[in-house]
Write a structure and sequence with these properties.
- The complex is a heterodimer of chains A (399) and B (855).
- With 399 residues, chain A is of the alpha/beta class.
- Chain A contains 11 helices and 26 strands.
- In chain A, the strands form 7 sheets. A 5-stranded parallel beta sheet of chain A has the order 3-2-1-7-19. A 5-stranded parallel beta sheet of chain A has the order 9-16-10-11-12, covered by helices on one side.
- In chain A, a hairpin with a 4-residue loop joins strand 24 and strand 25.
- Chain A is globular.
- With 855 residues, chain B is of the alpha/beta class.
- Chain B has 6 domains: 45 residues, N-terminal domain of TfIIb (Single Sheet); 274 residues, Rossmann fold (3-Layer(aba) Sandwich), CATH 3.40.50; 178 residues, 3-Layer(aba) Sandwich (Dimethylsulfoxide Reductase, domain 2); 115 residues, Barwin-like endoglucanases, CATH 2.40.40.20; 116 residues, no CATH class; 50 residues, Arc Repressor Mutant, subunit A.
- Chain B is built from 28 helices and 32 strands.
- In chain B, the strands form 7 sheets. A 7-stranded mixed beta sheet of chain B has the order 5-4-15-14-13-6-7, with helices on both faces.
- In chain B, helix 3 runs parallel beside helix 13.
- Chain B is globular and about 80 Å long.
- The chains are: A alpha/beta (399), B alpha/beta (855).
- At the A-B interface, strand 24 and helix 11 of A face strand 28 and helix 25 of B.
Chain lengths: 399, 855
């Protein structure tokens, strides 16, 4: 059996490894668009801050891939699928045949359609090349503007600040990381990053990137002009679905798959950020790896189904642990908040009908497992509600 | 440091105290009342000195004034009242806290020179029925027996006396005697199962007000058993001896049998008997039984009235009650009144009795009293139907108040405020419940402009033109005059006689050792008295205001172990407050269905209402509710119980019926309950319901409840305790009504604020309070703060032994390890080995904690 995995990110690589392990007879080909060995994309920020080298980011060196029997094809972007023939066509026109195809094409960082958005000095923050560009810019110091106050934007900001740049983060919402943090935790984080010299413009929207031959400044809607030698766009991602759509596979926001991660074409699977399961896309590595496992089992003929777990995000931003899980934006939910501003600890718990549906932990995430369990099991917390925010050590449940 | 021999200012036991100027106190081993022991209140006396809120300068119309100006104003107020209303338009309301010499001067001013009988004492609330009962039976107000009789008796009957809490040292003497002679029996007659019932042989849970029926039943039984007496009035008394006790027949039979067969029986009665519309009859019903059995003034036998205050007896001796004259002289004997008029050179001597307390304040309210001088007492809180009393005081044209504290509800209303000396500063005598006169001596200098009450009285008398009669230069001179007076119009059958002390020199007075009257001759010590006694008919009457469908429960008020009166002295002392920090209403659980233990509950009577913390106490007699009388606007404005108490009085003694008011329980509807712990007092007006609880040096607990939305209250209360550079730790669950906050600076705790929809959702306060003294609390404690308890630590338990700070949990643990007696618990934990006042509570823990069987 010939199996082709398109995309050598964490999900694609994991899937290829599992397939090679499960189906020793099969020929597993892993095709990556980047001219690099599979690496830990999540750790790119460490490269930026200097806490990691390019080598240390490599997760699967070539000998390992060979030993696993994986045919690795770096720098091999795929241009089209010929489903009728069971072949993928590379940009160079090469045809790669498959009996089973796994799409792990990931996503692309969004470049805002602004005047000046393509000027030199304006970079995205997605892959190793982007990081290299940022490092080059940082070498001369100066001012940087990061557009986007999500996790990636903040990582970029922290990294650039660590490299000596004066960084301003422009964010559309009033507090950073609004998908993982509520306003209070966001404010704590803002203060925290402020101590590292990072400034914030929020809520604010960018109207243009100014400059003749290269980016010189970022212009905000309120007229503010932020001079910048480097502009980093980290405003979100767009699933890479062109390949699938043009091949006639059903897509919505991303490629629609069933519980086994199978697309409408029984020979083709999709996993990771390019897949859409039950109307939801994922953006984190942990569920992407789970999906990779499920797809590998399904291809191997085993029963397998992916069930989304409560979204839990454990992050470390500038040394501060941040964790969130479940639904943290439900405006109708009852909220319990615990805050110790002097010790930079914060918790927000969202409840509905006496059950925990979401949680945000900031500063101290040691009790994350406790809350994740409560969210997942939907156990009633009514009996210990007053102690809930203090953590499991304070919960004395009636026997 | 040199110790001064003085006398405790609390209850009527009158214990000797050795005090140093720095405030260290210990029991006087040579005093016959206590032989070195002191109770929890007495032990903490040093902590009551130097209290904030002392009144240190006279004030007139709210402004500081010189003594000259203030006394001028008092004199002018009384002169005006005399001019407008005559003598009956003037009045003094004084107190068992006064020394005999102050008391004497006040009585002399009123009866001798203002010419009015309108001087009454807060003893009216305390002892008036016993006084009246004594006078009816003995022809004179006297206690025949001695404390020693409690130790010599084979049967001690406590009637309406929680001796363990209210007279702890006498209780300890009794317990020690019982330990030495296990055959000795103790019977407690009380609607409540009080601390005094611990270890008692029999508890008769009498319904409030039925004591007369019980002793009438005993009286008939004794007669049926063959007891006879030649004393007058027996036949009529027997004919009137009616009433049903309502008690269990077997319990009653046991009591009747024990009393009948035990010649050495002491019946000790106190406020539970006195504070009744049949209080005088209760005293006489008891005395009748002792008279019929010939057990009066015998070793180990007699009726024994125990007084509530340190000098109620002194007040009675000088005649500072509206219906007594002076020195046990009596208006009913014209020769005695004449002798007094001549002795005082007081042609205007009051012609007859004046208004007793309740009537007096009603006269004040009706505008018939133009000038009223209140000394050392707090009628705005302590009298029944207190809202009406407060209103009367407010409308008094010239209200003068003498006190050592500015912090009393009555002081707030006074037009002229006079700074009195407090305990440790004043000098004079007091008489205890066994007729022993002891010296209270000063061991500290008078602060600022505080002066003796007698000096202020004399100053006013001089301004009114009677200076010659008040020209004393010392308390000793007053005492000599008083002692001389007791010898007037003799020969007479009066037992009260201090003639033998009339010529004491100043030095002898200064050195006077405890002396029991009568002292007819120099050097004499009084002993037991066997007065000519008559039977008094005591037909049973039920309480004046019966319970009914609308007000089904009977309210009784009384004292707590570690508080005194209206808390002006004891309230600010944290370790005294620790015993019962909040104003509570105790009720039998089955009488309060739908009223959970620990919830705030409103008590309503036809006279007023109060809101208190409800406690379920299975030891309460069904149909009764007990509320401590202590709380004032200073500590818990909504818990002032006297506003609800009925103003019914005994027709003879005029003593209010504080032990029976029909009431009902109504839920106190609150939007939130909470507490605020802070480093300073934020007062008692923080919320709809507030109890202010001093909890340590610069540490105050405020128990709160309110009706506004909890989030609003939370924000408002937080704003009150903000500190510069301090930061909050906050836990908020608005949907559940839970709000918790702690304020810290550099790890030091400044405030804790907890709000919840019901009291049960609040954590115990002890652990949080224990963190305040810490210079910096650790990270684990900081994380646990808003839980109110260390994550895995034991739940804090209440302090039982105040002297050594031993918690109930520690005592229970020692019992569980095998300490099955008071002595063993004391050995193991030190609990109960200090003042001993907590021993009944330890006994209760012993009774209910399972002790392991020996292996």
């Amino acid at each position: 059996m010939r199996i082709l995995v398109i995309g050598a990110g964490p999900a694609g690589t994991r899937c290829a490894v599992r397939l090679a392990e499960r189906l020793p007879e099969a020929r597993v080909t892993l095709a990556g668009a980047e001219a690099a060995l599979p690496y830990d994309r999540v750790a790119l920020s460490k490269l930026l801050t200097g806490d990691a080298t390019i080598e240390s980011l490599i997760t699967h060196p070539l000998p390992m891939l060979r030993r696993l029997g994986i045919h690795y094809r770096p720098a091999t972007p795929i241009a089209a699928l010929d489903r009728a023939a069971g072949e993928a066509v590379t940009t160079r026109g090469e045809r790669l045949p498959y009996d089973r195809l796994v799409l792990a094409t990931g996503s692309t960082a969004i470049r805002l359609p602004l005047p000046g958005a393509t000027l030199p000095g304006t970079v995205l923050y997605r892959d190793m090349d982007d990081v290299r560009a940022m490092l080059r810019a940082a070498r001369t110091g100066g001012r940087a503007v990061v557009i986007g106050g999500g996790l990636l934007g903040l990582e970029a900001a922290v990294g650039l600040a660590a490299r000596g740049m004066r960084v301003t983060v422009v964010h559309a919402v009033g507090w950073p990381m609004e998908r993982q943090l509520d306003p209070a935790a966001g404010a704590l984080l803002t203060t925290r990053l402020g101590t590292r010299g990072i400034r914030f413009a929020m809520p604010a929207s960018t109207t243009a990137i100014e400059g003749e031959d290269r980016a010189r400044a970022v212009l905000l809607a309120d007229g503010t002009r932020l001079p910048a030698e480097l502009v980093v766009m980290a405003v979100g991602i767009r699933p890479n679905i062109a390949l699938a759509r043009e091949a006639g596979l059903p897509v919505a926001r991303a490629i629609t798959v069933d519980d086994a991660m199978r697309t409408a074409d029984p020979a083709i699977f999709a996993i990771g950020e390019c897949a859409e399961h039950a109307g939801r896309c994922i953006g984190l590595v942990a569920p992407a790896l789970e999906q990779a496992e499920v797809a590998a089992r399904a291809i191997a003929g085993e029963a397998a189904a992916w069930a989304p777990r409560a979204d839990a995000t454990a992050l470390k931003v500038s040394g501060t642990a941040v964790w969130s899980a479940g639904d943290i934006a439900d405006a109708e939910a009852e909220c319990i908040t615990l805050r110790d501003e002097a010790e930079e600890r914060y918790r927000r718990l969202l409840l509905r009908d006496g059950r925990l549906i979401g949680a945000v932990l900031y500063g101290d995430t040691t009790d994350a497992g406790f809350y994740l369990d409560l969210i997942t099991t939907r156990r009633s917390v009514a009996g210990f509600r007053s102690a809930l925010a203090l953590g499991p050590a304070f919960v004395r449940e009636a026997a | 440091m040199a110790e001064t021999r003085t006398t405790c200012p609390y209850c009527g036991v009158g214990c000797g105290v050795l005090a140093s100027p720095d405030g260290t106190v210990r029991g006087d081993p040579d005093h016959p009342a206590n032989r070195g022991r002191l109770c929890s209140k007495g032990t903490a006396l040093g902590e009551t000195l130097d209290q904030p809120g002392r009144l240190l300068h006279p004030e007139v119309d709210g402004k500081r004034a010189s003594w000259d100006l203030a006394l001028d104003a008092v004199a002018e107020g009384f002169r005006k009242a005399l001019a407008e209303h005559g003598p009956q338009g003037t009045a003094l309301y004084v107190s068992g806290q006064l020394l005999t010499e102050d008391y004497y001067a006040a009585n002399k001013l009123a009866k001798g020179f203002l010419g009015t009988g309108n001087i009454d004492s807060n003893s009216r609330l305390c002892m008036a029925s016993a006084v009246a009962g004594h006078r009816r039976a003995f022809g004179e107000d006297l206690v025949p027996g001695l404390y020693e009789d409690l130790e010599l008796a084979d049967l001690v009957v406590l009637v309406g006396s929680n001796l363990a809490w209210c007279h702890p040292i006498l209780h300890q003497r009794l317990q020690a005697a019982r330990l030495a002679r296990p055959g000795m029996r103790l019977v407690v007659i009380d609607p409540r199962r009080t601390a005094s019932c611990e270890g008692a042989d029999l508890h008769l849970p009498i319904a409030p007000g039925r004591d007369v029926a019980l002793f009438n039943t005993l009286f008939r039984h004794l007669h049926a058993q063959g007891f006879r007496s030649d004393a007058p009035g027996l036949t009529e008394a027997l004919a009137k001896a009616d009433g049903e006790t309502g008690l269990d027949a077997a319990l009653l039979a046991t009591f009747l049998d024990w009393f009948t067969t035990t010649p050495r029986t002491v019946t000790l009665f106190s406020q539970g008997a006195n504070q009744s519309s049949a209080g005088t009859d209760k005293a006489n019903a008891i005395i009748n039984c002792h008279l019929l059995t010939g057990r009066i003034g015998e070793p180990g036998a007699g009726p024994f009235s125990i007084t509530g205050q340190p000098n109620a007896m002194g007040g009675r001796e000088v005649g500072a009650l509206a219906n007594t004259l002076a020195g046990h002289l009596d208006w009913s004997s014209p020769a005695e009144a004449t002798a007094l008029r001549d002795y005082w050179r007081a042609p205007n001597l009051a012609a007859g009795p004046g208004l007793k307390a309740i009537d007096l304040f009603h006269a004040v309210g009706a505008g018939r009293i133009g000038a009223l001088w209140v000394m050392a007492t707090n009628p705005a809180v302590s009298l029944p139907d207190a809202a009406r009393i407060r209103d009367s005081l407010r409308r008094t044209p010239c209200l003068v108040a003498s006190d050592c504290t500015r912090e009393s509800d009555t002081m707030d209303l006074a037009r002229i405020r006079l700074p009195a000396l407090g305990w440790g500063e004043k000098s004079g005598t007091v008489t205890n419940s066994e007729r022993v006169i002891s010296r209270q001596r000063a061991f500290r200098p008078a602060p600022d402009e505080a002066r003796p009450d007698w000096w202020a009285i004399a100053g006013v008398a001089a301004r009114l033109g009677w200076g010659d009669a008040f020209a004393w230069t010392s308390a000793a001179a007053i005492f000599r005059e008083h002692a001389t007076l007791t010898g007037l119009a003799r020969p007479a059958p009066r037992a009260f006689d201090l003639s033998g002390l009339a010529d004491l020199t100043d030095a002898e007075y200064a050195a006077m050792a405890p002396t029991r009257w009568p002292v007819a001759r120099r050097g004499q010590q009084g002993g037991r008295l066997t007065p000519a006694t008559r039977f008094v008919p005591t037909a049973y009457r039920s309480p004046a205001n019966p319970t009914g469908a609308a007000y089904p429960l009977a309210l009784l008020t009384g004292r707590l172990r570690d508080q005194w009166h209206t808390m002006t002295r004891t309230g600010p002392v944290p370790r005294l407050m620790a015993h019962t920090p909040e104003p509570t209403a105790a009720v039998h659980p089955e009488d309060a269905p739908g009223f959970p233990d620990g919830n705030l509950t409103r008590i309503e009577s036809p006279w007023g209402s109060a809101t208190l913390r409800l406690r379920h106490e299975p030891g309460m007699a069904r149909g009764t509710v007990f509320v401590p009388m202590h709380w004032t606007a200073r500590f818990a404005p909504a818990a002032r119980i006297n506003a609800s108490v009925n103003p019914a009085v005994d027709p003879i003694s005029g003593q209010p019926e504080l032990k029976h008011t029909p009431i009902r329980l109504v839920p106190a509807l609150m939007a939130w309950h909470g507490f605020l712990l802070a480093r300073r007092s934020l007062g008692a007006g923080l919320a709809g319901w507030t109890a202010l609880i001093p909890a340590g040096p610069d540490l105050f607990r405020h128990e709160l409840a309110g009706t506004e939305p909890p989030a609003e209250a939370f924000a408002r209360l937080r704003a009150l305790v903000e500190e510069p550079d301090a930061a909050w730790v906050l836990l908020e669950d608005p949907a559940a009504g839970l709000h918790r906050a702690a304020l810290l600076r550099d790890g030091r705790l400044f405030a804790c604020l907890f709000l919840a929809p019901n009291p049960a959702a609040l954590p115990p306060r002890d652990w949080l309070l224990s963190l305040f003294p810490e210079p910096a609390i650790g990270s684990a404690a900081r994380r646990a703060l808003l839980g109110g308890a260390p994550a895995d630590g034991p739940t804090p338990s209440p302090t039982i032994c105040v002297c050594h700070g031993i918690a109930a949990s520690v005592i229970c643990a020692s019992i569980a390890r095998g300490a099955n007696t008071l002595a063993l618990v004391g050995e193991a934990t030190r609990a109960g080995t200090g003042c001993g006042s907590c021993r009944p509570e330890i006994a209760a823990l012993l009774a209910k904690t399972p002790v392991p069987e020996p292996a």
